[in-house]
Each structure stands twice: as C-alpha cells, then as structure tokens.
Amino acid sequence: MSRVPLISLLSSIRLTPNLPPQSWYLIAGVTFSTLNRPDALTDVLQYAIEKDGSSAEARLQITRRMREALIKAAPIGGLPKTINALFALKSVTIEALTDDPLGYSPTERSAEIYDIPSSKILHRGQLFFDQIYGKVSKRVMGQMDRSGTEDLGIVARLMYGYILSNTNVLTAAESSFVLIAGLIPQDVSS
Length: 190
Prior knowledge:
By secondary structure, this protein is mainly alpha-helical. Helices cover 69% and strands 0% of the residues.
C-alpha cells in the first residue's frame, strides 16, 4: 500500500465517530499487524504522533498504547505477527519513546507474574472474559474445557488473566476494540 492511500485511510479511521478517544491508531495498527503488514505500522505510528502527539508525554503514551494493543492482539492474530509488528515499530521509534527492558513497565506485568498471587490475576481474567462474552461466558469456557484437551481452557484463562484483562495502559473498552480489530481481518468469530 503506498503512503498516500494509507494516509487517506488513516485519516478516515481517525475521524470515525463513536470510537473510544485515541483508539483509532490502535485499531488500525492491530488490523495491519493481523494482516502481517508491519511496514504499514510504521506509517500508522508516525501519523498518530503527527496528529495526536503534541507533547513528549503524548508521544510516549501513543507508542506505549500501540505496543500494548499489539501485545493484546497476539493471542488473536498470532505471536509471530506481533513480533514482526513490534520490531517494525522499534525500528522507527526514538529511544526516548521506548521502555527500558529491565526498567519501569506501565503494564506492571512483571509484578503480576512475580509478586501477585496467580489466583487474583486469573480471577480478574475471568471477570474480563465474563464481560466480553456476557451471558454465554460459562458455556463458551465450558466448551473450551471440553474441547478434547483441558489445555484450551487453561490457555484462555492465562491469556485473559495475564494479557487481555490488564487495564494499566488500555481500558477494557479499548481492549475489546483491539480484539475485534484482530478478529475481523481473519474473518473469524469471537
């Protein structure tokens, strides 16, 4: 995709009514990642910073939110595509907009893994799963548990607990939009 039509598409997405504020670039980024188009992600990030990154703090938040959206999309679109996307973003991101690998993480996932009882994280994940699936959540989880391997339900609980239900960077609503943005290009139901 050449840059001119891409910018026109991004502009259109950015002006879409009824999206959570500042979620347009998350949706675009996750969609391009799911389509395995990491080259387009660099343009999405640069356009988001150009249009919405009026301060150093705003630019940092945009890059952190984009990275978090891609992490949350990994269970939906696949980890290899997320790796491609994150490395593409890193190639165009100045050091001031990256987080030190051994330093502070706004998601606090390291603390969740090492310092918080897993039962608390898994409970949070179950609540998030229930919120996403509503009245059919018990049936859907039960189907996964009875899929021929109990591991499908375990994997879902781990993903929802440790990845998807973390709202330190993206809200629950933004996370839901990210999931949908990862599902639509694959033409799969949730």
